Amino acid sequence: MLGRRFLRRAITAALLAIAPFPTFSGERGAEPGVFDFYVLSLSWSPSYCAAEGAEANERQCGSGRPYAFVVHGLWPQYERGYPEFCRGRQPGRVPDRLVRDHLDIVPSVGLIGHQWRKHGSCSGLGHADYFALTRAARERVSVPAEFSRLAAPRMVAPDAVEELFIAANPGMEPEGIAATCDRRYLREVRICMTRDLRFRACREVDRKACRLDRALMPPARGG
Questions:
Q1: How many structural domains are present in the chain?
Q2: Can you give the pLDDT at residue 20?
Q3: pTM value?
């Protein structure tokens, strides 16, 4: 499977060099609840902490970087593009109780608020239902055991990371997951889901996956 995936990525990279795929920006102020599917974005927290350095969130990155994969967000998507900052009736501020209740999966007060305003506002749900769905989406995904505790830095093939997630999650498709990176670090694993949280394919998301042969995963020092 890895060989086929590598070949597909190589062909995609060659096509990009000839005629790049269009990029789709967000539709700001779109109608809440009108979208096709969700992307659950899981961030490798130590990569965020290492990349941001002194600018990183203190709660998330203090005390020896205790977090591994955390929820970056649950994002409504169109088949092409995505809505953002939708104009609904829900207030922009997330109630403090909901923030506290979800810091175990999104360990940043600021990120919780931002994710609601940019993405949650487009779900058509209220605060409580959106964050309940976010938790349900996170619980739907089994993180491979290889990443539950990483004691030392590790160079990984992004394709191999995707394959481990696919193996750990029956029904997940190769075209329904994308590991992303910057120039050095593996940053996120993005998983496409239907509105009722079944795994599904999403070619636009998949083709934005990392194209590095190897990316660095810093350790989650607290386990």
A1: 1
A2: 39
A3: 0.86
